[in-house]
Specification:
The protein is of the alpha/beta class. The protein is 30% helix and 26% strand. The chain has ten helices and 16 strands. Strands 3, 5, 6, 7, 8, 15 and 16 form a seven-stranded mixed β-sheet that branches. A six-stranded parallel β-sheet has the order 11-10-9-12-13-14, with helices on both faces. Strand 15, helix 10 and strand 16 form a beta-alpha-beta unit. Helix 3 crosses helix 4 and helix 3 crosses helix 9. The radius of gyration is 20 Å and the shape is elongated. It starts with a strand and ends with a strand. Bound molecules: NADP nicotinamide-adenine-dinucleotide phosphate (NAP). The site of NADP nicotinamide-adenine-dinucleotide phosphate has 25 residues, from helix 1, helix 3 and helix 4.
């Protein structure tokens, strides 16, 4: 038996307790875990509100982390086979979902950065098809993933990056990461709409990455709706990635008929090739100090108490050893 963050019932916090050891099957490896990250998706899965929430219990929580495989190679891993998970002394994953980690990255950064970094990279580069000089809007830019999206939009050559969030202090800190302007998402609807219209300017946003959905997304769509018959202008590619402000919105048909907006989402796990290329880029930029993430450590033994703790702008890293 090994120590693991075990979830017995959806809606509860996992507890650190003994769990059977994993055994590798065909194409799999056992990982000696060093640390795992605790992300919104881990909480959503355990709460039962995520589309991929576990159907059978108990399970070990945690979707990714870093650890050692084989003769001691340090890797970032994901995709543990249920009922195993990342928050345990050992887990089992497809070999294809292990990625070597550059020496320059400390354990906590190496565990915390790849998931939000790669997902932001893929959202911007693949789903948002960002090209040089595009104007980019990040809704939910004050969160861990949004902060990385601001930095990555810059690295990918965005001409202008507008960052929207609620927390005023976090918004102020985004200038240093490359934001050209910030917008308060908690402003009254008319004020928010006016700010979005102002920052979009005459040529609009070409890429929008949305980590919040709900009311801010509704106001955004109201802001881009044209109020007259007008010539079609450059496409806005809206990429849905998170739902912090609400799981559903009301979308007026006029939005889609008056403006060239395409609404897509992050669309599941990409192919191994696409994932590996994004991972390589993100890890190389992180190793060179061009991508930053704030972390906070908790011990696996304290997982139950730490599960729902508020850690504004910081990614919790669960230390296993
Ligand atoms: N699909 C994917 O590939 C993918 C990948 C990574 C993350 N995500 C999702 O994206 C979301 C953000 O992830 P994260 O890692 O950045 O989490 P996080 O660090 O907890 O950040 C949450 C963000 O959402 C904002 N927010 C929360 N509730 C809000 C509300 N009621 N109204 C407006 N804004 C609100 C926060 O704004 P303030 O802090 O300013 O209040 C902050 O910007 C989560 O839903 C996560 O599951 C999806």
């Amino acid at each position: 038996m090994m120590d693991a963050a075990v979830l017995h019932r959806l809606g509860e916090a996992p507890r650190c307790e003994p769990f059977p050891e994993p055994v590798a099957g065909e194409g799999e490896v056992v990982v000696e875990v060093r640390c795992a990250s605790l992300k919104p998706v881990d909480r959503q899965l355990a709460s039962g509100t995520h589309y991929a929430s576990p159907k059978e219990l108990p399970v070990v929580c945690g979707t990714d982390g870093i650890g050692h495989v084989g003769r001691g190679e340090r890797v970032f891993f994901g995709g543990a086979r249920a009922p195993f998970g990342a928050m345990a002394e050992r887990t089992v994953v497809p070999r294809a979902f292990t990625f070597p980690v550059p020496e320059e990255l400390d354990d906590d950064t190496a565990a915390a950065l790849p998931n939000p970094g790669v997902s932001a990279w893929l959202a911007l580069a693949h789903r948002g098809k960002l090209v040089k000089d595009d104007a980019v809007l990040i809704l939910g830019a004050t969160g861990v993933t949004g902060r990385l999206a601001v930095q990555i939009a810059r690295l990918l050559g965005a001409g202008r990056v507008v960052a929207a969030g609620r927390d005023p202090e976090a918004l102020r800190s985004l200038d240093a990461l490359g934001a050209n302007a910030t917008i308060r998402l908690d402003a009254p609807a008319e004020e928010l709409e006016a700010a979005l219209v102002r920052e979009a300017g005459p040529s609009g946003f070409q890429v929008v990455i949305d980590y919040v959905w709900g009311r801010p997304a509704e106001v955004f769509f109201a802001a881009i709706t044209r109020r007259e018959f007008a010539a079609m202008r450059a496409e806005t590619r809206f990429v849905q990635a998170g739902e912090g402000a609400g799981a559903a919105i009301s979308l007026s048909a006029a939005v889609l008929r008056s403006t060239a907006v395409t609404i897509t989402g992050t669309a599941g796990i990409p192919s191994r090739e696409v994932l590996a290329e994004a991972m390589e880029q993100v890890l190389a930029h992180a190793a060179a100090g061009r991508l930053r993430i704030a972390t906070q450590r908790v011990a696996l033994a304290e997982i139950e108490a730490a599960w729902d703790r508020e850690t504004k702008g910081r990614r919790v890293v669960v230390a296993v050893r």
